[in-house]
Amino acid sequence: MSTTRTIERTIPALRTVEGGGFVVHRPFPTRLLMDFDPFLLLDEMGPVDYAPGEAKGAPDHPHRGFETVTYVLEGQFGHKDSAGHSGTLREGDVQWMTAGAGVVHSEMPDPEFTRTGGRVHGLQLWVNLPRRDKMIAPHYQEIASGKIPVAVSDDGRVRVKVIAGEALGVKAAIETRTPILYQHFSLQPGASVETRVPRDFRVFAYPLAGAGFYGADRTPVRAQQMVLFNDDGESVTLAAGDEPLEVLLIGGVPLKEPVVRYGPFVMNTEDEIRQAVIDYQAGRMGAITH
Ligand code: FE
């Protein structure tokens, strides 16, 4: 018996202001949905058009116990960290940062971009680490746009960037600590796709642009509404309406472990959170040299 998943519910993203003042659309965590095990947060940054001198970012801050995945759609994001690692992410690039035991980093526009201004649009996903991996050494995987595997449907009307997992027979370049899928589907008007998802994955879609139809009963959902699928099938069906559809499909195997969060630290117990605060204040997560 092969079935395509039905929809449990949809949740509108909340517009909020983060870090140094950048606008995000956040499907979770909000009061409607605290997390989506194994994911802790999804932020759609912008889209926002910055005037010269106005671009915002997130100055120096720590992370421990999880991974941050940054995917740039438009504009650019500069980053710098306490291990001496720095660079610029441009359109289509992905940075998968495993914070593990702790890192201090900044996510700021480069001076040149700040000077000229421009459009910024991107995503940040927080992937929780299992208890056994929370204190591993920090680690980065950076994949330039051109190195991200792409699959195209037989009819040529559906294209998917395979950031994590496998889609339409194409495997991702990024390695994940637990089984994760993260895929960006682009559908031409009227196109549809049924893509396989492992049975034990919890899966959601997050439409970025265009009206689409989701799940077994083709529920219409607009952009910036998170679509939560039930765990009742081996595939997910996505379909575009009269316009092109851009949609992320994200999923993973739930960790089913206690989650204690305190800002940028996500651990299993209150004691581990207290220790994270102590370690950060004692400089054990390092500092950025400016
Ligand atoms: Fe960060």
UniProtKB/TrEMBL annotation:
Molecular function, one GO term: metal ion binding
Leader sequence residues: none
Cofactor (UniProt): Fe cation
One Pfam family of this chain: Pirin_C
Cofactor details (free text): Binds 1 Fe cation per subunit.
Domain Pirin N-terminal: 25-127
Binding site for Fe cation: H61, H63, H105, E107
Segments forming domain Pirin C-terminal: 182-286
SUPFAM superfamilies: RmlC-like cupins
Keywords for the protein's UniProt record, in alphabetical order: Iron, Metal-binding
Keyword Metal-binding part of the UniProt annotation: yes
Gene3D superfamilies: Jelly Rolls (2.60.120.10)
Protein's UniProt keywords contain Metal-binding: yes
Similarity comment: Belongs to the pirin family.
Protein name: Redox-sensitive bicupin YhaK, pirin superfamily
